Amino acid sequence: MTLSFLFRPAFAVILASLTLASAQAAQSPMNNERLGTLILRLDENAEGGSGFWRATVGGHAVTVITDENADRMRIISPVARADDLDPGLMFRMLQANFDTALDARYSIARGILWSLYLHPLGSLSDEQFLASLGQVVNLAASFGTTYSSGGLSFGGGDSSELIQELLEKGLSI
Fold first, then answer.
1. 146 exposed, middle or buried (CB, 10 Å; 0-12, 13-18, 19+)?
2. Can you give the CATH number for the domain in which 122 is found?
3. Fewer Cβ neighbours under 10 Å: the N or C end of the chain?
4. pLDDT, position 3
5. Which pLDDT score is estimated for 129?
């Protein structure tokens, strides 16, 4: 008996949805208390609390901001000064936002280029938070090379060809 049917995209999507739904049903809604516990497990030196934390993850500064009343959560990590970005870099970041940034995004606010992730707070699972935090850090770390938040690419965009060009040039990514 072959298990190849398990790898059909439609089945994978359904399985992932069921797994996610059952995991979320087992947890109470995310709140500042539980989020703070997760952040302190990642960085025991994290500062802040109850809606605003600063931590270091993978050598990158990250800030987590929440608003329980508005049911929102935001993870940000500074990448570069916005004044230092030329039009080519801006164009490349928009390409990455389409396919390799996945759930994280590049954005600009207050003169800073940020790696950013937004999500409703209450429906956020522990696993989603940790994965999202990883995406934000990866996107910040890969700025200037692959502009990627992880090993996957959504596809259909320009990034795959650009990454292949980097590989062919022998650049370290």
1. buried
2. 3.30.1460.10
3. N
4. 30
5. 94
Overall domain count for the chain: 1
The structure tokens 């952040």 sit at: 39
Residue 153 DSSP class? -
Continuous H helices in the chain: 9-26, 32-42, 87-99, 126-141, 159-168
Count CB atoms within 10 A of the CB of residue 149.
28
First to last CA, the chain: 40
What six digits make up the tokens of 107? 């954005």
Work out whether the CA dihedral 67, 72, 77, 78 comes out positive or negative.
negative
Residue 125 one-letter amino acid: S
- Say which residue the tokens 């938070």 belong to: 129
Which residues form the domain of 74?
Answer: 28-168
Q: Are 157 and 99 in contact (CB under 8 A)?
A: yes
User: What is the total residue count of the chain?
Assistant: 173
